[in-house]
């Protein structure tokens, strides 16, 4: 089966690869970009990039209901275990781990990571999913950083990048990031959820086409991209 990347909204993605369903940054019930709820999604694996509410809000409830394995940094994993999540896998920056569905690489991100209750959320991160159909990079919430050039050496099929500005990099820096990462496809996220991060995705797409070698793919909530 061809790997599918489904955009839920904000920074939440559902990746279907083989027989595995992977959720990245599950934010459903209070996400104004989607009408799906945490009670109606399936998951085998949940990946959490950092501790902010709009990335982790529904991770515990989905993991408890589905038995999904949650992959994140050590501090977030401890926090989720205290909420009754049983299946977890802690990682840290620069680490790789081979799972049944493929290999996961945890990368740096420049952001913050406090958990919703004020607990220490450890270091924010991005993740490269090395799957049979191609490698997918989800940058998490981050500003531009020069070491994206090293991540670009991972032969990326897709790079998922925030473009909302204000809290993360914006459209201009995302173009530089695409140049560093050299993916075949660039998918934007973390934009248009709330007024402070409103962006013109059509203008962004035109800039990606004219100034990078990547193909821009702007997904509306619920839409999919196939590898």
What does this structure look like?
The chain has a 7-stranded mixed sheet with strand order 6-5-4-3-2-1-14, with helices on one face. The protein has a 7-stranded mixed sheet with strand order 7-8-9-10-11-12-13. The model has no long low-confidence stretch (mean pLDDT 98). Helices cover 20% and strands 30% of the residues. It is α/β, with parallel strands linked by helices.
Please provide a brief summary of the model.
With 227 residues, this protein is α/β, with parallel strands linked by helices. The protein is 20% helix and 30% strand.
Helix content: 10-25%
Count of separate DSSP helical elements: 6
Rg calculated over all Cα atoms: 16 Å
**Low confidence ranges:** none
Distance between the termini: 10 Å
Strand content: 25-35%
Give the structural class: alpha/beta
* Element pattern in H and E: EEEEHHEHEEEEEHEHEHEE
Give the rounded overall mean pLDDT: 98
Question: How do the strands of the widest beta sheet line up side by side?
Answer: 6-5-4-3-2-1-14
Shape assignment:
globular
User: How many beta-strand segments?
Assistant: 14
Q: Outline the biggest β-sheet.
A: 7 strands, mixed
List the helices and strands and how they pair.
Blueprint: E1 4-9, E2 12-17, E3 20-24, E4 45-47, H1 53-56, H2 59-66, E5 69-73, H3 74-81, E6 88-91, E7 96-99, E8 102-108, E9 125-131, E10 134-138, H4 148-151, E11 156-162, H5 171-181, E12 185-189, H6 201-211, E13 215-216, E14 224-226
Parallel strand pairs: 3-4, 4-5, 5-6, 10-11, 11-12, 12-13
Antiparallel strand pairs: 1-2, 1-14, 2-3, 7-8, 8-9, 9-10
């Amino acid at each position: 089966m061809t790997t599918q990347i489904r955009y839920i909204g904000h920074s939440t993605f559902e990746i279907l690869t083989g027989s595995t369903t992977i959720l990245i940054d599950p934010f459903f019930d209070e996400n104004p970009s989607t009408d799906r709820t945490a009670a109606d999604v399936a998951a085998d694996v949940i990946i959490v990039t950092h501790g902010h509410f709009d990335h982790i809000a529904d991770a515990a409830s989905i993991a408890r209901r589905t038995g999904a394995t949650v992959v994140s940094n050590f501090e977030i994993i401890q926090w989720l275990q205290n909420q009754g999540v049983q299946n977890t896998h802690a990682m840290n920056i620069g680490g790789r781990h081979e799972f049944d569905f493929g290999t996961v690489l945890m990368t740096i991100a420049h952001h913050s990571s406090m958990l919703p209750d004020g607990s220490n959320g450890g270091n924010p991160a991005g993740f490269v999913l090395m799957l049979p159909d191609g490698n997918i990079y989800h940058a998490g919430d981050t500003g531009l950083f020069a070491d994206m050039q090293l991540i670009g050496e991972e032969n990326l099929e897709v790079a998922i990048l925030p473009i909302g500005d204000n809290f993360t990099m914006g459209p201009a820096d995302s173009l530089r990031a695409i140049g560093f990462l050299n993916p075949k496809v660039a998918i934007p996220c973390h934009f248009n959820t709330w007024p402070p991060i409103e962006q013109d995705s059509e203008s962004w797409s035109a800039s990606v086409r004219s100034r990078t070698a990547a193909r821009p793919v702007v997904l509306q909530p619920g839409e999919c991209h196939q590898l």
